[in-house]
Amino acid sequence: RSGYFIEGDFTTYPEAFGNTQVSNRIELAYNHFYSTRNNTDVIATRVYSGIGIGDVNFNQQFIVGGTDIRGYSFGQYRGDYLVAVQGEYRYNFYKRFGAVGFAGLATVYGSQNPNDDGKLLPGAGVGLRYTYMEDTHSNVGLDIGVGDGDWGIYFRFTEAF
Description:
The chain is mainly β. It has strands at residues 3-13, 23-36, 41-54, 62-63, 78-79, 81-94, 97-109, 121-133, 138-147, 151-156. It has no helices and ten strands. A hairpin with a 3-residue loop joins strand 9 (138-147) and strand 10 (151-156). It is globular and about 55 Å long.
């Protein structure tokens, strides 16, 4: 409900393992959580960056949608690099029930579609939550997100971030 979480990940596709397209992926994420309303609600923020190094093929590219910026069909916007910033308010209105409102902005570079490079991709939406494990604040949720000319429905057994 409060604090921060920093995550880094390095994935490699080396030639030594038979990869014909040698590349590396670096992912960096910073999540910060602020408790509000007497430790009942949470303001959550996230900054994410994905960096592809080498001959990044289509299946190894970074994708907008799902965790980083809801409201886009999975795979519609992809590239060798991705930057995303987002925030959400997690409002717990009655015992184990809650709602969330979220908004964010992302962009990709190194896309196979040059028109997508640097395009600003906003996303926003709302969702409902049910806490199925109170001791760990574990939620199940259903979100609807809207992007630029796209939308999506997301069901999950955790928060987006």
